[in-house]
Structure formats: structure tokens, C-alpha cells
Structures
1.
Amino acid sequence: MKTTKPAVITRVIKMDRGKRLIAIIMLVAICPLLASCYDAREVDDLGFVIAMGLDRGKTNTLRMTLQIAKPMAGADGGSVGDDLPYEQFSVEAPAVFSGLNMINTFASKQISLTHLKVVVFSSELAREGLKPYLNAMLRGKEFRPNMPIVVARHTAEEYLQSVVPKLVTNAAKYYELVFQSYKYTGLIPKVEFHDFYLASKSPCRNPVAILGDAGKFLSAEEFDIKNSTYMDHHRSMPFEGDFFAGDIPALGGARAENVGLAVFEGDKMVGELDGTNTTMYLLCTGDYIHSYWTFPDPLAEGRYVLMNVKQSRKPKHRVEFVDGKPRIDIMLNLEGDLVAVQSDIDYETGDNSLVLESAAEDYIKDHVQKFLDKTINEFQSDICGFGAYARAHFMTWAEWEAYNWHTKYKDATFNLTVNFKVRRPGLILRSGTSEAMESRRDDQ
Amino acid sequence: MIKSLLLFHEPQVKKPFILTEDSGNVNSGNTNTGEDSAKTGENKEPSRRKKNENLLLKKVEKIKLTDRRERNQKDQKSDISRQLSENLKTIEERFSASLNGDLIIRQFDITVKDSTIAAFLVFFDGLVNTKVIDDDILQPLMLLSNLDIKGDRDDILKYIRSHILPHNQLKEVRTHQELIDEVYFGGCGLYIDGLDAAFAADVKDLPGRSVERPNNELVIRGPQEGFTENLRANTGLIRKRLMDQNLIAENIIIGNRSKTPCSIMYIKDIANETLVNEVKRRLKNIDVDYIMDTGELEQFIEDNPALPAPQMLATERPDRVCTMLAEGRVAIIMHGSPFALVVPITSNDIMYSAEDQFLRFPYSNLLRFIRILAILMSLLLPGIYLAITNYHHEMIPTDLLLAIMSAREKVPFPSVVEVFLMEISFELIREAGIRIPGPIGPTLGIIGALILGQAAVEANIVSPILIIVVAVTGLGSFAIPNFSAGFAFRILRFAFIMLAALSGFLGITVGLILIGLWMVSAKSFGVPYFAPIAPRTSGGFTDAIFKSPAWKQEKRPDYINAKQQKMQPRISRKWALANENNQAGGDNTGDQNG
């Protein structure tokens, strides 16, 4: 009788802790039984798609092209050049995900879209409207929202096939880098998928997409500039941006070129703009960072002044309504570093610098005005997003939507101011010659 | 019962073979110390702990631990007789003199003016300094004694003690047991015919190491002394650094057969009394035959034997012990162990190295940051690698992903198997490296691991990225300064690998939450393990994770509840003040608070 009493007390203590412990152990042991390794996939069981192209299909709605990255074998420097870092598959399917299913019938690895770097649409598909395809991309968890959208001037399949990266062994790196070039060339717009989608639904603005194409020229003999827009810009020969994608007289490297932008109205493509106009677009939206420009020399005919133009401040916008029509005021603040003065005139000091600055301002103003007129006359599409600044004049959102900015944009007028300052002369502080040399040259 | 098969029991107290009803004196002493907490007014032990204490005490009452010790003492409490032959017989019997080869019984005669008095010495050869015995005990007694036997018996005792025996530690004992204990600790027992008391002289010269560098806690800047296995040498090392008059070193004997002497050290007017009493209570109430090392002792007196992290700091460095004593903690030093235990500690203390306080604070903060990284890596890196490559492919940059893919193309196993393989072989190599003789052992271990890993990569058994993961993990676990904590993280790492393989980041998160819950609810001698972070206490932060400069450490850590909170005044560098009081000259001992 007495010996059982301590046993009862001690067992009470054990039970509490024991129950706890058993509960924990059972919970921990059941979890793997319920859900173990449910989602686990080895990395080498998956095929990672890095680029996707969508075209109008011959037998079905869509022709889908997928580029799947190939893991480069080891660090032994796998054979460079001949071996493409990706494999390309094409399939005709009614929609995006059914295309994935069909490709999995002959591709061994399970397709994973988590590393998709770019989506390319053909211009035919873009002119018909991209809404059905955007929905899949937005809804799917696997699509990254920051990938660029490219419109290929011919077919997406051709564009993707022409991508042969020569400087990188990793195809994904190629795509990551090439669409960042807006930061330092200004020849393609800054496009991210989530922004594209928002703009296609927005009452204030319209989206743009990067224009891409396979380079046309296979050898130097074939170079010609008949497709260039230099005539529209009243120039005697094409500057760096006066081309559309595919027309640049260049050889070597990956043959896919990205120059210019595709103008959209809602989700339908309505036109294309060349590289120079793309630069103006970037200036107006404020996404411009810096690039090298060619200005005609104001004091010497036929020569150029090259400057590294940077955005010193974001542009200031303002929209006023005059007679019911919007008047858009834009003020651009730019600065330039002298990179080359071909004529050796000293623009660094004195009046010459002011001459250069005002010449540059006029040049920029001229081009921006032409760009904006184009958006009004040819496309009637507000791609720079000025509607966002017009919203302030309306009291409620319903009023703003009833106003329907997209139809009113074509009556808009512009009031441009450009501030351009030359800041740095590079490593030559003063260009000039000695008096003796000058007098000798004058004699000659 | 099935339950008792599945459950992990705390080490059960041994049931003695006699169960009696009366409660001994010691038990009421225990309950007193439990209620002592109200006295000081700074009760850091919550009521739940007291409930556990009471339950434990009830258990103790029922089981009657102390009964056995009392019974042992009763049997052997016999007085020393005046007959030398009787004493000799008792001693020979108790010491098993016929069997013990190293027991020496030296019989001799003390010369007196006209008669001789027989006497004998008993000591253990090997534990004593025989020169001291010869010079200071035998010589004066045999050659130089001039006993005047005119006086009384007690007078002779006093005379011998105060005049004849020029030895510095001499104790007069009246029971055989006391003398036997002294002899076992390196003393020398002296029986004199006709006296009913005996003398025990401390002539110990225990064989052992001299004071050398600590093996495991090496610092660059700081003292290079480490504890040895000798109790008195260790307490001496501490006393010579902390010459505080309030530094107490209490004696306790642990172990029924090994009778290991231990020393509890604390500073009387700083350390919380309930803490000291609790330490004493736990140490006195261990019923065990042999205790060899503080590692065993730690397991006997810690709160949570199953917790992965250690709840007591085992350190080889006297300066570290002194710092902690000055903060108000209690140190336990055991004879035969070069590691001292310091209680209570929190999770921050396992992250400190001894050098942190000697370096300037930017350097020590950098080192702490690296150690935190090392802990996180050694715990989580293989788990995170598995979680990301199996479940969360979108988190890796595409470059790295393709590199991993190309590395894994040739490996036939799934990544879980790879990771387990490499981790287990790394642990094998580490363990084997300890046994390789000589100083190259551990180095060879690591290099061997890397070479083995390289060979495995060449054979396409594992992928090269995994070698790096495993190597970095191993290095991280070496960077943890506390030995036990390093083990804890090594074990937990495997749990995290399993969890990550089962459910990716969800598994890792669940694991972290569970471990966090467990460790946050743990206590080390009444102090919550994650103080001062959880629960948040005030004023404990100057040294919690990142260290403030030495001149800013003003208060003792709050969770220790020391008797005096302030360590330094707000301005410790008084020379920096523009003041005429701080001129050179005069000593500054008056200014410091003890």
C-alpha cells in the first residue's frame, strides 16, 4: 500500500512530460508521412526555359518556341562557339501551357519557367492584340514580373534562332545583359512585363515593347542604308539611332538586334519607332540614364561634336487644359561631357561653350518635338504617360475615366524646354593651337 | 510499459535498500534554502520552479538519500584510542595494509629525556613529499624532541602541536575517519602512543601537470595559464588574480567512493545567495559512487540534460573564471579536472571567447560577428543548400543554377544522399583526426577531408559545390568557441538536413521554431537561457551580442541578480576629465568599489 503511493506521484510527473514528448514526436513523425518531399525536384531533372517566343501558327493558334538552357559541362571550358548554349524547340499549340505539355512529349526534362528571361511576340500577333497571352503570364506563379517584352519584326522563331551569343557561355546571362542596354545606349526602351501589363490597362498611358529582329546583313558587301530613317531626320547620313531592328549595318556577334520600340494602343501594336525616337521617348519618361550622342558641330560644317549626355534631373511635366485641349509642358534637364570635338574648336571656354549648349538644346528640342508629333499624328498613342499628370485636374476617378484621355491625346500641344549644360571637357582642358601654328595655317 | 520504453527518463535517483520513515536533518535544511529566496528579496526563481523543487524534495524525502551517508558516518565514527597497538591494528585494517603496496606505515620512537614514546606515521607513497616528512616531521620528533613529560596529556598534545612539529599545515583529529580522509588527500597521519588524538599533516605533492597553456582556449592577447588537475593549484590560480577579500572557496566532497573534493567559489557580497545555496544544494544531493571529471558533474547538476546547448560554461582559463566571478556568477572546481564550471550562463556566453575582453572593442565586435555567421552557417548551410536546390529553384541566379546543374549531371545520387554522404564522412574524418597521434592530427583531418572530397568529385560521386558547402560548414563549426555548443550544432545540423529535404524552407522554419521554443524555455540555474534577449531585461545589453568598450560596462548583467549592480561608475576614465582631483600621485584603491 505504501509503496504504490510514491509510484503514483512519480508517474503523474512522468505523464505530463511524456504526453508532451509523445505529442511532439508524433507530430514530427507524421509530417513526412503526410507530405514528404512533395514538391522536391532535383535541379538536373528540370529544363529551364530562358526565352519564349509566340507566333501565329500555321495549323493552330500559336506557334510556341522555347529556348532551354543547356548546362555547360564543367569548368573545363566547353567547346566555345559552335555549341549553342541552349536548345530550341518549337511546337504549335492553342495556348501557352498546352504548348508546354506538348513540348514535354519529346523533351526529357520537366519544363520549368521560373528562369524565363524574355518573351518575344511576333509583330503579326502583336497587331492582333496580346491580351489573351498576357493573362497567362500574369497569373502564372512561375513568370517573373520583371522580364522584358520584345516584339520581333518578323517572326519570334527567327529572332530567337538568330541569338548566338559569342561573348558569354551562359545564354541566360546574354538575355539579362542585352536588355539592360537602355541604361547606356538609349536605343531600346525600358520595358518590364508588369509595367507593360499595367500600361495596357491604364487610362493614362500606353505600353511599349522592345523591337527586335535578326540582322539582315551576312557580309560587308550587303550593307546598305536604304531602310534607315536618316532622311526623316533631315540628315545627310544616318546617325547611330536612325535604324530599325535588323537594319543596322553590322557584322559579328549574336545576330539578333534590338533597336527601337513598338508602339501599342492598349494591347494592340500600332507602329514602330526607330532608335533616335526611342532615345527621345526615354528622355520624356525620365528613364534615360546616359549615352553618347553625335551633334553636328555648330561652328564647323560637316564635323561632329560627340558628347556623353546624362540626365541631370528627372524631367518636369505639367499638363494644363487650354480650350479643353491638353497642353503639355515638358522641361528636360540634361548635361553633357565632351568626348570628342572633331574640329578642334575650343568649346570648353567662353562664348563657344554657350554656342555649343544652345545648339545642342535646339537639336534636342527639334528631335523631341518630332517624336511627340509622331505619337500624336501617326499613332495617337500616349506612350510617354502624360495622362498621369493630367489626372490632377479631375476631382474623382469616375470623371477622369469619363474624360477618356486616350481619345483626347491627339489634340494635345506641347511646350518644350530643354536645359543643356556642358559640364566636363574630358582630359583636354583647352583645345587650341599656338599662335605660330595658327598663323601658318592661315597663310596656307 | 510501452510508454516507459519510448520516453526518455531523467537519470533516476538510486533507491537505497532501506526505506525509513523519519526525515533526516539535511532535508529540512534543503527546504530552508528553498524558502530562502524570499529573504534576499531578489527572487529570480519563478513559482513554477519552486513547485518542481517541492516535488523533487518530496521524492527525496521518500527515498532518503542522505540516510546512507549518515549510516556510513555512524559506523566509522570511532575515537582514537590511547593504545598505539590498537590504533595500528585499526589503521592496518582500514587501509588494507597487507594488500596495498603503496601504503607506508613507519613506526618510530620519539625520544624523551629518559624514555621513549612509540609512534607511527602512515602515508601513501606517491602522494606525499617525502622530503618534507623527513625534515619536518620525522627529524624534529626523532632527533630534536625534548619532551618534558612533567605536564599533562593535553599539555603534551599542545606542546607537540605548537613547539615540536614545525610544519605549516597540521590538524588535530579525534576520529579515524578524518585522518583517513586526510591521508587519502596526500596527508600524513601521526599516531602517538598515549594520546587519544592524532595529527594529520598536509604534505601533499600530488603527481600532476604543472601550470601550462590551456589546450583548448588559445588566445593571442591575454594570459596563457590554464587550470591543472590539482584542486589547490586551481583555486590558487584564481585567488592570485582576484585578491578580493570577499572571495570565498567552499569545500564540498562529491562521490561516495571517489570522495572527490570540490570547491565552490564566489564573491560573497556580489553573488546572489539563493544562487550559491542552489549550487550547494545540487552538489550535496548527488548520490553517486565515482565522479571523474566536471563533464560528468555537469550532467548531474544541469537543468535540462537533453537540451542541445550547454547550460554551464566549462573553461580552462582562470582569467575567464575570474571575470565571471566578478560578474556575480559561481564557479565549481573539481579535483582532478582541468575544467572549471561556471554557472549560470546564457546563450550569449557560449558565443564569447576568452579574448573578447582583452581586445579593443572594434576587433572583438568583428570577431563576434564572424562567430555569429559561423554558428548560422554550421547549423543551416547544408539545409539551405538542399532546400534551394530541391524546392526553391527560382531563388538562385540563373548562372549559379546552370553551374549546379552541370555539376550534378554526372552524379548518380539525389542531392539528399550526397549531402548525407559527405557530412557523415566529414564527421568520420574529424573523429578519426582526433586519434591521429601528434600535432598534425587535426590538420591532417581537415586536409584529408578536402582531398577525399576532391577525389570523390573526380569519381563523380559528389558534385564540387557540395564539397564547398560541407567544408564551409565544417569550418564554421570549428569557429564556435565553446566546445559543447559546437557539438550541439553538429547534431542539429543533421536534423535540419532532414527537415530541408522533406519540406524545403518550410521545414527549416519549423525546425528553427521548435529549436527556438525549446531553447528559449530552458533555464540555466534559474536564469532563462536567452536572457537578456528573451525575456528582455534592462541593462544587460552592454555585453550581450556586441560588446561595448571596456569603459562602458557599468552594470552587472541584470539576469544574474547580483547584490551589487554597478561595476563601474559612469565615467571610468577619470583621467580624461579636466579636474584637479585626478593628478598623478596617491593610489586609487580607495576609489574603486569592491
2.
Amino acid sequence: MNAPVLSPGKPTASLDVERLRADFPILANVHPHGKPLAYLDNGASSQMPQRVIDRLVRYQTHEHANIHRGVHTLSERATAAYEEARHRVQGFLNALSDREIVFTSNVTDAINLVAHGFGRAFIGEGDEIIITHLEHHANIVPWQMLCEEKGAKLRVVPIDDTGTVLMDEYEKLFTPRTKFVSVTHVSNALGTVNPVDEMVRISHAHGVPIMIDGAQAVQHMPVDVQALDCDFYAFTGHKLYGPTGIGVLYGKAEWLERMKPFRGGGDMILSVTFEKTTYNVIPFKFEAGTPPIAQAIALGEAAEYVRGIGLEAIAAHEQALLAYATERVAALPGVRIYGTARHKAAVLSFYLGEVHPHDVGTLLNEDGVAVRTGHHCAQPVMQRFRIPGTVRASFAFYNTFEEADALVDSLRRIQKLFA
Amino acid sequence: MADSKQLYQEVILDHNRKPRNYGALGAPTHRAEGLNPLCGDHIWLSLRVDADRVAEIAFEGESCAICKASASMMTANVKGRPVAEAQALIEEFRGMVTGALDPATQPNHLGRLAVFAGVKDLPSRVKCAVLPWHTLHAAFRQQGTASTEGDQDPADPATH
Ligand SMILES: Cc1ncc(COP(=O)(O)O)c(C=O)c1O
């Protein structure tokens, strides 16, 4: 009951949160149960600023046509806007060339692309693939399917009780049969930030290429794929303030050139006869069929928007918010926090005493607080901690300390109800 | 808009706190396990059916309050009843939480179970409430397991 009253934390000097909130119409438009919305489910999907919505509208009202084929004005506009989006994403990740940016439909699709394109070409019977215990199902199942098809083995790096990957164990898993590593940058269930620099260094020391699932990272911290030196990096548009239906795969050109195409069809070819098809150059080789043009353009806009605010400033505000929310939630009687790694993104996963997460989620919604409950598509993480799921509050830069307070007040009410 | 306040009423909170008929029977004639893979609700049901009557019934497991209270109230309701009546009650309960039966206006035998009527407005929670009933159905048919997913899903209109 008597949580210590903390100072509500100073608004981060470099981030004018109130002004930024005004960019997101949905935050003011929706009142669940008549309450102001506290949207703390950004890990599942973030909201879209007006500027990105406007970009979608402008495309549909002034630019839409199919790309890469028409000679008419609209097709040229659409193609230019689509390729400009690729260029913006290149800048966002600091990739060497926009040839290294492949548009996919989400991060799941990007991982499947690599599992097929790389896996089918370079992984065989008895080979091994390393992932961690923290992975989202999207970075488990495609590799399991590949292993089944090829007779390869999946090796899993264990985590400790704080949700931190055991780096000694990681290094020990490498054998001459290790052919690929795919690890998450940030755990969606626990918030752990993996030491991906070190993980890349180790895998390269063993001559093994590495992919990083950045679905929970690119919205929280600056990512520079050249500095990181990873071979592949993927993220998903709808968690970076963009639309659904669009994802990004970054791949080093040398790998993309050597990989097999994922899907066959139009756009990914140079010439087709019934005897032989010549594939298009990268990245088009991996973009079969008409892509999500509008979504790609909107994602490019979202990436520019986020760059304009600055990921350092975003990280500073979110870290302050995470520290504040963690301290206040942890002070509630009987609460267990899952994910207490030293380096975390703004994800707070917990269990409220004996109250099941689904009951907590339903009752929080009554107070306008939107969270995710359940296993968060990371069932192995839940099995590791022997829980059916957690309540997960995941923050964005537009969240406020008052929203963290609303979460805590509502949790208190729920505890009273169940007392 | 659904009001979960109405759902989390004292009756339900009380059955969640102090579930009736909690445990496992020593020599059951019927048994079934119920699983809701989406939220992790997992219960076990054991029954002793004697002369076409539910002589004894017990449940145990891990679940949310809605599921636990539903299981608790279900066991209290069907204990001592003829199997045929319990089966009819399963249908009425399923009808109520999927919106097919309005206990306020249509004839039924649900009694206090009508506190679960509000679940129909919380689509993400219908499966929690219905799981014990689905498991009871499986137990009567000696099916062993019940799941809220796939083609066994009682809340899925495709199976109706
Ligand atoms: C770490 C991680 N990987 C992969 C995904 C899958 O994202 P999508 O469904 O957009 O492909 C998610 C999203 O939930 C995630 O958090």
C-alpha cells in the first residue's frame, strides 16, 4: 500500500514529451472506459505520428502506381518515393549501400528470408545454428524448420535468473559445425539488451556469420550496422512508429549476392524463359511481386521522424521512465519483476502477487492502461522462469511519468480487489 | 463497451479466493485435462459418476480468476445432478458466454452462473470462462483432453 512517494522525475531536458505526444492523434482520441489512454503496449506495436499518416495519405492521393515498370508519371513518382524510403532506411541503420536494404513484410518474414536464402545454400546435415534462450518465436521456429529439413541442430545459449545471456556458455557452443548465429538485440519479454557487439566479435572469431533480430531495439537506441559489423540485421515497421505490413532486412552485400532468392516471381528476375531464369540484382532479387509500396514509404518517413527526435534523447527519457516505473511497481507488495539485467530497454515484465496476468490486463484496461499479458511469443522464457506469462508494460518516448503512476495506481486497486 | 467491473464481482472473486471442490478424487470414473494454450490456463477435472449422476467432482490447476471461478462454480452446480442435466448446463453456459443465449430474457437453468454473462463482451476472456465446461464435456465423453484451440474450440463459430 505505502509505496514510497518518489519525485515524478524531471522531464528529460532534451525531449519535450508533451509536444511530441501531440504528434500522435490516437493518444488523445481514445478513452478506454472513459479514462485517458495510457498506452504501454509499445513492444507489441507502437502508434503512428501524424506526419507518417500524412505521408501515407499523400502517397495514395498523389503518387500511387506500381513501381519499377511504368513509364508514366505516377509510376515514376511511386518508384522514386519507394527507393527514397530504402535510402532513408539505409541512413537509419548506417548501412554501406542501399543495395543492402531489402524490404520484407515484417521481421518474421526477414528471418524466414535468411533461413531460406542462407540456410538452404549453406547449411547441411549435422551443422549447427546458435540462438539464445531469449528469442521471440519468430527467431526460433524458422531455424527449427530449417534444422528439420536439413538435419541440422539448434543450440541454445542459456540465460541466468536476471535474464542475461551467459556469454561464457555462448562462446563454448561454437564448434567446427557451427554455421550460423541468430540472436535478438533486445528481449521482447524481459527487456534485456544483449551484448551484440561482443556476440558479433565472438562469432566472427569463429568464422561464423551472425544475424540480429532488432525488432525491439531500433526504436530504443541508435543502431549502426557497420560499427556492429553484423552480417544481417532485421526490424519491423510497426514497432518503429510506422505501419504494419513492412519490415527490413539489412544484409552485407557479399552475403546477399551469394544467397538464394526466397520467393520467385515478378520483379526479382532479369529475364525469364521456360528454360532459364536470370535473377535480378540485390536487393530486388529478394523482393518478388509488388511490394508494400505505401508501407515502405511510410516507414522511411517514420525512420526520419525518429532520427529527427534523436535516439540518444529517446533512450535517455525511456531509461528514466523505466527506472521510475520499475522502482514504483517493485514497491508493491508481492510483486516479482522478471528481467533484471543490467542493460535493459524500456520493458517492464512482472507478476502481481498471486493475481494471474490476464486478470491484471483486463482490469488495467478498465483504468485506461493498455499492457500486454501472456507469454509474449517467447514461451521458452516463460518456461525458464516457470510462469504461464507476465504483465508487460513497454514504454515509448511519448510515455510520461504520469502514465507510469496510472499503471501503479491501477495495480494497487487490483491488489485491493483480490485481497 | 464491456464493463469488467461487472465481471469481477464478489461472487467470482470469492470463488477465485476459495475455490470449491478443489483437488483430485481418489478413484474417479471420469477424468479430463483442459488447456488454454494462449493464456496458459491448465486444469484437471476428476468425477465419480454413479447411476448416471455426478456423485463427486473435483478440479485443480493453474489459471486466471475467471477460469478458476468458472470451474469452482461449475463443480458446485453439477455435483449431485444427473449427467444429462449437467450436459444441458454445458450447452447453456457455452451459449451464454458466446452470446447465443441471454440469461436475462431466455429460459435457462444457469442460476448464479449468470454472473459470467459479461464475458461475452470480452472476447479475449471467453475461452478462460468456457475452459472448465469444455473439460467437463471431454470428461463425460472420456476424451482425456480438451483445448480451447483448433477444431475442438467451442467458442469458435466454425465448429458450430
Ligand atoms: C524480438 C522480436 N522478434 C520478432 C518479432 C515479430 O515481429 P513481427 O510480428 O512484426 O514479424 C517481435 C514482435 O513481437 C519481437 O519482439
